[in-house]
Amino acid sequence: MTRSSKPEEGLASPGRRSLLKAGLAAGSLAATAGLVRAGEANPENLPPNVADWSRYLGAGVDAAPYGVPSEHEAHVVRRSVEWLTASRESSVNFTPLHELDGIITPNGLCFERHHGGVAEMTPTDYRLMINGLVETPLIFTLDDLKRFPRENRLYFLECAANSGMEWRGAQLNGCQFTHGMVHCVMYTGVPLKYILEEAGLKTNAKWIMPEGGDASGMNRSIPLEKALDDCMVAFKMNGEALRPEQGYPARLVVPGWEGNMWVKWLRRIEVGDEPWHAREETSKYTDLMENGKARRFTWVMDTKSVITNPSPQAPVTHGKGPMVLSGLAWSGNGRITRVDVTVDGGKNWHEARLDGPSLPKALHRFYYEFDWDGSELLLQSRAYDETGYVQPTKDALRAVRGTNSIYHNNGIQTWYVKADGSVENVEIS
Length: 429
Ligand SMILES: Nc1nc2c(c(=O)[nH]1)N[C@H]1C(S)=C(S)[C@@H](COP(=O)(O)O)O[C@H]1N2
Ligand SMILES: [Mo]
Known about the structure:
The protein is an alpha+beta fold and 429 residues long. Helix content is 11%, strand content 27%.
């Protein structure tokens, strides 16, 4: 077993206090029926007393015109990793996957990746231009976009670099950092097909190039087939306007394909007959192989899964007995059909329970409930998609792709649960 080489870098060690609590709470599940954790509660609020919150009126309806989470959830935030932060403007932060459940990512917790900072676009000045190999070059306002028939669809977005730091071995201590460059929201928008048809595609049209209106002017080449299949121009996420970080007022949605292609602050779509070989598809977002050649146009995000609880930032604090293991699985190829879980490093596999809607190219939630005997565990999950593809081990990936890659690491993750309940990022072979 290789321990994570830089455990301090992930800033995610469970801390002494939570481990002490784990000790105190051990075996207390039955006594407290799991409702309150020993060592934390204020006895004055506990039965048979009348709790504080039952004795006084609460805040009025105007206390928070735009609602915010409970102050007790203040630790549930996006976090960045200092040594991965080139500058504040060209940077990334990570979704706190270990604090979430279900399959929807709340808007304020969706990881952010931008190359030129968050563009401050004014909706009234927003324009989307369609040019190139079209019959009629067009410029749309935001209101124009909202007069096309619109659709609502739930998709995950994963940065191709998610888990990229783990190619050469276990690095970051927490699924927020190893797997947190993914989010899943419901998008409301216009199928790109309608917009392209409005401009009229010329017969030699084969590719599109979406371009961002931010300072990075990010652009990528996308085959027309994909553009006409399921891409959309979205202006809402989870029912409300896109957040500025996510490309307000409009972004491209490219279901199942790497996050880099989901151009934010979308200002222009050029139609052409060949790819543009932009920076983000040559010098970046290509996969350097062992022989010095690079894989290009590796668009699809392959089937992947991760156990979110327990994990290094979410240690086991309840001692032995019933344990709910939980995680996420997703595939750029479609639906997840099955997830297997092992607690003994792959000696025995158990089929996990998928719960919640199973939608193509969206996150899927899985659970595995078991009785923990308090001994050390090596947790792994392995996802299958509807094409029959099975998530590979990291060693199997390296055998094919070498170790020069950053992008497209969908290998199986291992968490080492110690007897005291703390959890560490490790690799086993
Ligand atoms: N205009 C523009 N679009 C962009 C980017 C950018 O820097 N500028 N970053 C891309 C990358 S690399 C990713 S992974 C996703 C991240 O989307 P999010 O910030 O909504 O999570 O947006 C993509 N779209
Ligand atoms: Mo990305």
